[in-house]
Structures are given as structure tokens and as C-alpha cells.
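User: I'm curious whether this sequence folds into something compact or stays loose and floppy. Could you predict its structure so I can see for myself?
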Amino acid sequence: MAKKENIASVLAFEKKLVPSDGFMYGTTWDERHNKEKVEPLALLEKSVRGTISNRLKPAVQNDPLKLNAEVEKPNLQRVDSCGLTMNQDTLKLSFTLKVLSGVQHPSACNNQAFNESLTAACEEYITNEQFSELGNRYAENIANGRFLWRNRVGAEKIEVCVAVLSGDSGQSWTFDASSMNTREFSNPSAILELGTEIAQALAGKTDFLLLGIEAFVLIGKAQDVYPSEELVLDKGNSKSKKSKILYSIDGVAGMHSQKIGNAIRTIDTWYPDYVEVGIGPIAIEPYGAVTNLGKAYRNPQAKADFYTLFDLFARGEKLENKEDEHYVMAVLVRGGVFGKSDK
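Assistant: Here's the prediction. I'll summarize afterward.
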């Protein structure tokens, strides 16, 4: 067992779930499996005149003349948009997912004693748990189409097709994602085979697993679809610059691999007050950060954050419950730099 102060100052893990970018296409529901009827979706640019809707200073709010003058100002914007054509009613999102083994071996660790203790703890977890719980949860997030994000909302039908591209097994599954609940994990029997494949790859029983994933979403003719939005740090003050830039790959509307990965690893229902909070699963993060809510649900003061649990786990100490072990191993699958400064 490693000593309490024996924490590596250089410690890093490579991610073991590696999604590609998602490519977006338009088709019809009846012809969704006919490749000749599937067309790449391109981004369109719009120039629009918006209204002033931001909060105004009290001096403007309380003066009708100043308010009218402010509202009359044109709020000109150039934005990217993306949508189906009038002949299309179905979005197709396509990507691949590679699952790797070796989570028990850091990609960098400058402390041999800590490395040995950590490896032993991870291997004990793998022996006892075989990654079955994590594998099933990752599989359910694939099957329920969580990776579609906003494109999932208001869809009449959602079909997710998964195929094993590595090896010669030729296994494939088709899921009715619209019938699944994204607010909780029920581990339906339909996803257990896929969950087992993912778990075996993580546990090292297979060298790696490569999945091809296609989601078909019936949203209606000419409806908008929602690729990832680019983060533009240097917007400047020029009115000629676009205020919203969407992501595309060689002219095809796309979704960031990071956004797809975040959805697949949204499996954390083990954080404190999960039931009371009522927001459902959150993505696996060291502090349980949910940026759009501006909150960290794994506060170090509650000793529920990754580093508090990991330091105990890696030294060979038993955690209070199995859920904490699942969480720690899920963060290692996520990957990251977790060293402790010598200062």
C-alpha cells in the first residue's frame, strides 16, 4: 500500500472512449437506409435584423424617449444555420467510436510506488467488476441517442443503428431511441450485448472495439438541425463578422467529437443529492461540473470529488461504496492530467 503522501506529481491517463466527429446528412424516413437518398447537409449563412432585447441601464429603462431611440437601432447579425430541404424530413448523424483497454496503466507517472499501488487497485476492480456497469451505461447512452443533444428534442421517431467494425463478428444492433428515458438508467435487456462488448474492450479481453453508429431522427420537412457551434475567441468589434459560426467538416455540417464524448460519458448518477437535485445523470467530471448550470455537484468539502476518492483508491484503501469505485474508474476512462504539485 502506498503511503498517504506518496502521490505522483506527474500523472496522466489517455482517454479510452474515442469518438470521431459526427457528420450530418438529410434524407427521408422511408429511404433512410438507402445511401443514394442520403445527402450531406451544408451550412447556410443568414443576415438578419434582430431587436434590442438585452437588459438596459436604469436611465434608459425609465425614459420612454431614450427607450424608443434604443429600440429603433438595428441589431444586424450574420449567422450560420443548417436545415433539411423541403424534400427531406429526417436527419442522419454518423460517427465512429473506438473503445480501448489499459485504463490501469497511466500514460505518464513519475512515482513507481504509486504506480504499482494504482495498477493493483485498478486490476482488482477489473477482476471484480469487469466494467459491466460502466459498459452498460455507455451502451445505453448510445442506444438512447443522447449524443443528438438538441436534435433529439421534438423528434417523432429516433432510430440508432450500431455495428461492430473491428474484427469479423459482424454484430449489429438497432434501437428505438425514442422509447428510452434519458433521465435514468434502466439497463434494458436490448442493450446488454452492446454493453458487454464495450466492457470487454475496456477490461482488455479484446484489444480494442470500433463501433460505427448511425442515428436517424424524424424531425419534419425543412426543419432546422443543430450542428456544434464554434467557440470564437477573437470576435473583435466588427459588425461584419458572424455572431454564430457552426461547425463543418469539408463542407458537411458536423458535431464536435468532444460533444459526442460528453454525451456518452453522461453516466454519473452517484453524485451527492442526485435524487434531490432532479437533473438526471451528469457527465463524468472530476468535480461534477455542469457548466450550463454553473455548478459543481462533487464538492471537495463533501469529499465526493474525484481527487479525494482517487487518492484513497489509488493507495489501496477501500472506498465507502461500490458507486464511488465506478465513478473513479469512469474518470480514468475519461482521461486527463491528475498529478499533485510538489509545491
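Summary: The chain has nine helices and 16 strands. The first helix runs from residue 58 to 61.
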